[in-house]
Automatic annotation (TrEMBL):
Keyword list, A-Z: Signal
Lineage: Eukaryota, Metazoa, Ecdysozoa, Arthropoda, Hexapoda
Gene field: LOC112052605
Protein name: Uncharacterized protein LOC112052605
PANTHER family in the record: BEAT PROTEIN (PTHR21261), BEATEN PATH IA, ISOFORM B-RELATED (PTHR21261:SF8)
Highest taxon, organism lineage: Eukaryota
Length: 295
């Protein structure tokens, strides 16, 4: 038999093997949390559909090292191979679920589930996933520096702090539930020396405008998150400072009086009665004018 014929037969047999296997081992995937809190248990799942065939075995690897095997024909069906930092909870593990006790930072890494069907296909499939082990902050993020009142034109400067986590928390600012502009926010981290925990700092600074107030208030919120396992927020509210304009009391209305000169004529001047009567008439007219002018 020539090499070409052997190669063709091998390819046909291999194709039939794959075709047969594809009908018995399907929909293989893992459910691995993106992150797990240090010191807490965590569950990893390997899901698959064997259809009409039996399970031969399931293996779990961390990196390239096998640490868990489930073979239903073995007695006992579970075997655990020790890896530093990983402790399997046998009572809570089976063919599709793997439970780890109180994970440590050494449990961080890439995990692989390998599923094998029994005869006649013996098809094997591998799926992967990664998990990070984190230290979460013990408290919510803290806001420092917000005043009780602001008015347009004032500078607002607030710092948000999320203490002691691994990795440092990601911080985001919101103004009235709207994300703050990136040019108004600065980030930094502190700590982390020799394996210690990190503290995250974020500062927002901008000049307050009239549109920042909604019904006389401005809300500043800081949100902290670490992967998909941790999300906390802290919000504070400041009031708009009202400008009090002084009330001006109107002055009472005044009118200017007209003054006319009065010339008195002596009785010894030799004037006649008609002259005296004329003089009194002028005086009386003057008094009437002054009276109505003052009113």
């Amino acid at each position: 038999m020539s090499v070409g014929i052997i190669w063709t037969v091998w390819r046909v047999l291999f194709f039939l093997h794959l075709l047969q296997g594809s009908l018995c081992l399907r929909d293989v995937y893992t459910v691995i949390p993106e992150a797990a809190e240090r010191g807490k248990p965590v569950v990893l799942r390997c899901m698959y559909d064997l259809e009409n065939e039996d399970l031969y075995q399931v293996k779990w690897y961390r990196g390239d090292r096998e640490f868990y095997r489930y073979a239903p024909r073995d007695v006992p069906p579970i075997k655990v191979f020790p890896i530093s930092g990983i402790e399997v909870d046998r009572e809570a593990s089976d063919a599709q679920q793997l439970t780890l006790k109180e994970v440590t930072r050494r449990a961080h890494g890439r995990y692989t589930c390998e599923v094998s069907a029994d005869a006649p296909s013996f098809l094997t499939a591998q799926v992967h996933g990664s998990m990070y082990v984190v230290d979460l902050p013990k408290n919510d993020p803290e806001l420092i520096g917000l005043k009780r009142r602001y008015k347009p034109g004032m500078k607002l400067k607030v710092e948000c702090i999320s203490y002691e986590s691994m990795p440092p928390a990601n911080l985001s600012f919101f103004i009235n539930s709207v994300p703050a502009l990136s040019q108004h926010v600065w980030h930094r981290v502190g700590g982390g020396e020799n394996g210690s925990l990190w503290t995250a700092y974020s500062t927002i600074q901008f000049v307050v405008q009239k549109q920042h107030f909604i019904r006389g208030k401005i809300k500043i919120r800081c949100s902290a998150y670490i992967y998909s396992i941790y999300f906390r927020s802290h919000e504070q509210v400041a009031d708009e400072e009202r400008v009090v304009r002084p009330t001006i009391t109107p002055l009472p209305e005044t009118r200017e009086a007209m003054v006319f000169p009065i010339h008195r004529v002596s009785d010894n001047s030799g004037t006649t009665v008609e002259d005296n009567a004329s003089t009194r008439f002028l005086q009386l007219t003057f008094l009437v004018l002054v009276y109505y002018t003052v009113r």
